[in-house]
Structures are given as C-alpha cells and as structure tokens.
Design goal:
Blueprint lengths: L5 E2 L10 E6 L2 E6 L10 H12 L7 E6 L18 H19 L5 E5 L2 E3 L1 H8 L2 E4 L4 E3 L2 H4 L7 H9 L1 H10 L3 E2 H7 L4 E2 L5 H13 L3 H16 L2 H16 L2 H11 L11
Parallel strand pairs: 3-4, 4-5, 5-7, 6-8, 7-10
Antiparallel strand pairs: 1-2, 2-3, 8-9
Helix pairs in contact: 1-2, 3-5, 5-6, 9-10
The structure holds 3-methylmercaptopropionate-CoA (MMPA-CoA) (1HE).
Length: 270
C-alpha cells in the first residue's frame, strides 16, 4: 500500500521538482510543483527525462502522479513568451526525448490522474502505458486558445488513443472532457473513486512488476510498432518477438509452473 513507500536515495533524490519514493520494485514519481499546478518548465522536463533514463535496474514499474489539486497544467506558459523559432523546435524536441524515455523506456509507467490533465499534461499522460483517473479528472487541449500547437508528442500519441476527430474537436473548440467522456474516448483504462487513484495505480504497478521482464518489454516496444506496421510485416515482427520471449528461462519456468499446477489461473477482475 502507499505507506510502504520510502524516499529514494542516491543521485536522483536531489531532483527538486519531482518527489521520488520506492517500494521494492515499484517507484513512485510525483510531479512536485503544486503552486504552479505542476506546469512543466524546462527544468521539470529535464528532470523527468533524467529520471526515466536513469531508472535503476531493480525498478520494474513506475507510478506517475501529481502533487496538489491537479495532475498537470501542461507547458509552463511563463517560459514560452521568450522563445525564438530555433529554440522552440529544440524545446519541443526536448519534450519528445523526455516522453519517449517514458513510452519507450525500460519499464511500464502507470499514470494516476486527477484534476486538470491539460495541454502538455495530457501529452505526458498519453506517453504512459496505463492511465487511472479519479472523478475530478478533466482533459483539455487549450493550445488553440493560447495560440500555439501541441509540442510534446500530442499529435502523434493522442489521436492513437482517442482518434483525430475527437482531438480536433478539443483543440478547435476548447471542449473539455470530464472523466467519463475521457473514458469513453479511450483516454484512460481505469476510472476509480476520488482519492483511490494512487492505491489502484500502485496495485497495478505491482502486478506489472511481477510479469516477466521480456513480456513487459514486448508489450512496450513491439506492440505499438506492430500496430503501425502493415499486417504481413506486423505478423513477422510478432513471430520474432514471440520467439524471443518464449525462449527466455523465465518464460520456460512460468509455463512449467502452470503445467505443474503451481501458477494462478485466469480469473475475472473484481
Ligand atoms: C501556470 C500554468 C501554466 C497554472 N503555466 N503557470 N496550459 C494551460 O493553458 C492551462 C493553464 N492553467 C489553467 O487553466 C489553470 O491554472 C488550471 C485549470 C490548470 C488550474 O486552475 P487553478 O484555479 O487551480 O489554479 P490557478 O490559480 O489558475 O493557477 C495557480 C498558479 O499556477 C498561478 O500562478 P500564481 O503565481 O498567480 O499563483 C498560475 O499562473 C500558475 N499556472 N497553469 C504557467 N500552464 C510542449 S507543448 C504543450 C502545450 C501546452 O501545454 S498548452 C497548455 C498550457
């Protein structure tokens, strides 16, 4: 449960915009800029990048949440005004690198959402593998109103969750989805009660951490690529990935455990 988490020690504990804690193989990474609604400044994006690139080898899953009343208010708009075109391109690429380090990093990431999940906050959530949301959650893409465009990978990731037409609606009209609309649109996999998000996120992360590492790797790295490939190439990639996963000692042990009656059966979720 959440109170088993202890502060992370070592170099990453020096990061001031993130609170990091650990319970065995699960890390909890919390955005810690509540006074600014966890708006993502250059320093915060750099710290996110660093954490996900430098996750220690014993970490098997991560829970990502936001301190305060909101998950994340998106780009820190106070830093945007000063930027020229060249640095704006590099700024966007910095976000891409950070969010790629989440989506295509070493371990699955479970986002726990509440309050505002807007602009770059939605881009960040979309880079995670599982999204759990409390009833206070709302989703918006106010870039249109701010005179800008998504720059944190949103145009690549969000349509893959909700479709181009819904994203177009959010961006052109400023429409805001509540948690149920977000759920129906595919933005989250789990809706939970108010205040229950972290416990559910941690429980899911623990289950994920118990999977064979190669299975998690295949889901994170092969599945989204296969989904983008023409069927013939996708099936070939699948066959290669399946052969790699099946040939690991861990897979062989798990298959044998099932056949010997030592492994759990598939049961319906409660
Ligand atoms: C901020 C930001 C921010 C809050 N950048 N400072 N994102 C947006 O357009 C969303 C802008 N924010 C909001 O609409 C609201 O702040 C919220 C709905 C998220 C929260 O409202 P509330 O009433 O809880 O907080 P607040 O009073 O509006 O904000 C508290 C403080 O946080 C205040 O600063 P203070 O010094 O006056 O106390 C706000 O200025 C500050 N704050 N959000 C900077 N975003 C890679 S491209 C991505 C493109 C985008 O993300 S565009 C969308 C940007």
């Amino acid at each position: 449960m959440p109170n088993a988490f202890a502060p992370v020690t070592g170099a990453l504990s020096a990061l001031d915009l993130l609170t990091l804690s650990q319970d065995s193989a699960v890390w909890h990474v919390r955005l810690n800029r509540p006074a600014k609604r966890n708006a993502i400044s250059d320093a915060l994006i750099a710290q996110l990048h660093q954490v996900f690139v430098e996750l220690p080898a014993d970490v098997k899953a991560v829970v990502l949440s936001g301190e305060g009343q909101h998950f994340c208010a998106g780009l820190d708009l106070s830093e945007l005004v000063e930027r020229d075109i060249g640095s704006a391109v590099l700024h966007s690429r910095m976000w891409h690198a950070a969010f790629d380090a989440i989506q295509f990093g070493r371990v699955p990431v479970v986002a726990v959402l509440h309050g505002a999940v807007v602009g770059g906050g939605l881009e960040l959530a979309a880079a995670c593998h599982i999204r759990v949301a409390e009833p206070s959650t709302y989703f918006g893409l106010p870039e249109g109103q701010r005179g800008i465009f998504v720059g944190g990978g949103g145009s690549a990731r969000i349509p893959r969750l909700m479709g181009v037409s819904r994203m177009t609606d959010l961006m052109l009209t400023g429409r805001v989805y509540d948690v149920d609309e977000g759920h129906a649109a595919g933005l989250l996999q789990y809706k939970v009660g108010e205040g229950e998000g972290l416990a559910r996120g941690i429980a899911l992360a623990r289950r994920i951490a118990g999977n064979a590492p190669m299975s998690n790797f295949a889901v994170m790295h092969a599945l989204p690529r296969i989904a983008e490939q023409p069927q013939a190439e996708g099936l070939f990639t699948e066959a290669l990935m399946a052969a790699v996963a099946e040939s690991t000692p861990e897979a062989q042990d798990r298959l044998r455990a099932f056949l010997d009656g030592r492994a759990g059966k598939v049961v319906k979720s409660s």
